[in-house]
Amino acid sequence: MTSQVSSPAEHADGAVVGEQRKPARAKETRRLDRVIIRFAGDSGDGMQLTGDRFTSETASFGNDLSTLPNFPAEIRAPAGTLPGVSSFQLHFADHDILTPGDAPNVLVAMNPAALKANIGDVPRGAEIIVNTDEFTKRAMAKVGYAASPLEDGSLDGYAVHPVPLTTMTVEALKEFELSRKEAERSKNMFALGLLSWMYHRPTEGTEKFLQTKFAKKPEIAAANIAAFRAGWNFGETTEDFAVSYEVAPATKTFPTGTYRNISGNLALSYGLIAASKQADLPLYLGSYPITPASDILHELSKHKNFGVRTFQAEDEIAGIGAALGAAFGGSLAVTTTSGPGVALKSETIGLAVSLELPLLVIDIQRGGPSTGLPTKTEQADLLQAMYGRNGEAPVPVVAPCTPADCFDAALEAARIALAYRTPVLLLSDGYLANGSEPWRIPEVDELPDLRVQFAQGPNHTLDDGTEVFWPYKRDPQTLARPWAIPGTPGLEHRIGGIEKQDGTGNISYDPANHDFMVRTRQAKIDGIDVPDIEVDAPSGEANTLVLGWGSTYGPITAAVRRLRAAGENIAQAHLRHLNPFPRNLGAVLGRYEKVVIPEMNLGQLATLVRAKYLVDAHSYNQVNGMPFKAEQLATALKEAIDG
Description:
- By secondary structure, the chain is of the alpha/beta class.
- It is built from 20 helices and 24 strands.
- The chain has a seven-stranded mixed beta sheet, sandwiched between helices. Strands 3-4-2-5-6-7 form a six-stranded mixed beta sheet, sandwiched between helices.
- The longest helix has 20 residues, at 218-237.
- The chain is globular.
- Residues 1-24 have low confidence and may be disordered.
């Protein structure tokens, strides 16, 4: 593994990018420090693939980046309708960035629905590339356009580039033995080629990707590559695109190392594998497919070579039941789900609390309640994670703050679960899961040692001198009970959900013992060693603290940067550990006159902070299925400072 930032001519994986095609004649090239591009079209137009490929080439070029995929919940939403619009937004820059951007500088609209659904986010003066072939009377009427927006003057404030993408794609592929419908499917590659020319993106990686993706259908691979090249050549030769743009690599942003682009779900998957290797335990995933967590099941199923076993269960309850059984058997056990699945798994999570076994419960949060908004993001499962079980069943809660941070959060959740013999809830969300950013691949010696010792023999001496094994005799430091693997001679013990007697693990209905066990389980969670929260307050003169958790980190930090650039004093702190809270959190909160907590819910962390620390925390909330925008947060925080 190299220890240098990849140069612009290298992929993050070290592969050399091919030479760019040279324009036949000189065109103006403008230098930009950042760009926000949004691809939008029908859910069948390949916008996610287009955005993903543009992102991959941008990552290989060395830009910092952040992405926001946004797509319908339906597998194939009605074509040409507003609910069927799928989009992918990419923000890339020559400097450190934190969000996918508030508003696109460039909108690629593949049809009238895509234009209408997204035009409200596009600022005046921005560039709009429209596929004019799709602006038929029928298609426009379907989304409520009485007249063509390309002709009625409504887009006069924008730099509109009308491009007959469909026609040009079909023409470019006429040498292939494809039907018109088959040829039209490559129009997203034409658009990708055009944008790749506009922003000087590498091209060889995409061509290799297409060859691999359609290896069993070489004619389709060749057609897509031809469409991609045709789009690039169109940008090079057409008079409509007289300017191309350069965004230099963010070489000063990244510490030295080897980088790759990574999504939150992929980072979580790699973090779980790394945790199992560092713990020297087999990784077992018992899961049921659910949006937006399914990609973790898909990814982990590819890694049997690392000792990973994946089980796609018949339902959520079976998935966590199998995982808990694997934990009893000595595996690093994981179950993945979203909010509705956590509700179904709640009884078994309570059983894991009673059994005191390590178990990772990964909740990729989405809009709720019930089935809610499967493909949209939300942070509304915090109180469910804290209290969503019968009885006193405390569970540690950990939350990553960026897509790349999901790797470290997985390691931290595993550390807590293994050291304290407890289920741990990890709260990611759809924004982190599907979004991506550059990630520095860590060296193996940077990873924590997570190895544990299984019980090997008797651990208690009775009054008569007999040596016995007590399954609930606790470590005095962590209060963790021993982990006894089934089949180990002499370590037979009871399991089940009925209350255990302290020490012996025998069934007990004794009131005093139950009170003791409840308090002991709570004390174990309260005593978990977590780092102090760090406060970012450069001036030391701020009276307002903005406190966040999870995926709000990017928008909050971007908003704080804007305010500081405008001369405002504001402090920022972000929570990874939500149960237990860092020990210094109360003292930190007490130093500020105002505490503002932005959340993608109706104030769940604010409720916890108010209850525990008696702090008059102010909530700023949003539950529209989309992440905060930096400008929106900056305005709200400025009002809090001035209020």
